Amino acid sequence: MTPKHPSESLTVLTDLVLPSETNPLNNLFGGELLARMDRAASIAAGRHSRRIGVTASVNHVAFNKSIPLGSVVIIEAKVSRAFKTSMEIYLDVWIEDRQSGKRTKANEAIYTFVAVDETGRPVEVPEIIPETELEKQRYEAALRRKQLSLVLAGKMNANDATELKALFV
Ligand SMILES: CC(=O)SCCNC(=O)CCNC(=O)[C@H](O)C(C)(C)COP(=O)(O)OP(=O)(O)OC[C@H]1O[C@@H](n2cnc3c(N)ncnc32)[C@H](O)[C@@H]1OP(=O)(O)O
């Protein structure tokens, strides 16, 4: 399989915050943002693998900044690392000022998707070659995050998480 670059999976989802999507403080409901990010990540995973992608885990979500009613929200999703059948998708969420067009970073999230065939069985995905400095940083750290996610899910013994253990020695 020909390796790909993260830019080939870039998915940008731009949408408004409507009244039905807000909490009592008139800010975007967390679950609505999670769903939008899942959609963007699913498209990014599909662009990288050209397969059906299922969400295997949500590894990290930081709701750093609330997103008010009426905001223009931009979600950027890109595959940050591809393993054998799984892909880490890194999501950056921005609020765009209507007047100036200036973007403010609101949230970040990291999802893991697995490429599957029509019967739901995991299938291999192309390798990824990071290009920019940020892509290289995210690529390097992705193996640690995969090991942490597998340990927390009870799918990996902590003693086998070599990359993760290296952080503490
Ligand atoms: C877009 C959507 O919303 S889809 C709907 C929500 N998602 C779903 O319904 C998915 C349901 N879950 C499943 O179908 C299965 O559990 C799968 C396909 C995700 C994984 O199946 P498994 O039988 O565990 O397969 P397997 O053990 O071979 O793992 C497949 C890959 O997933 C990775 N993986 C599995 N669980 C996790 C996890 N919790 N965190 C990180 N990676 C994981 C494995 O490390 C492996 O990666 P690799 O092949 O790149 O090394």
UniProtKB/TrEMBL annotation:
Chain ranges of the HotDog ACOT-type domain: 7-119
GO-annotated molecular function: long-chain fatty acyl-CoA hydrolase activity
Keyword vocabulary terms for this entry: Hydrolase
Gene3D superfamilies with a match to the protein in the record: Hotdog Thioesterase
Keyword Hydrolase: yes
Pfam family, one: 4HBT
Protein name according to UniProt: Acyl-CoA thioesterase
Organism: Flavobacterium gilvum
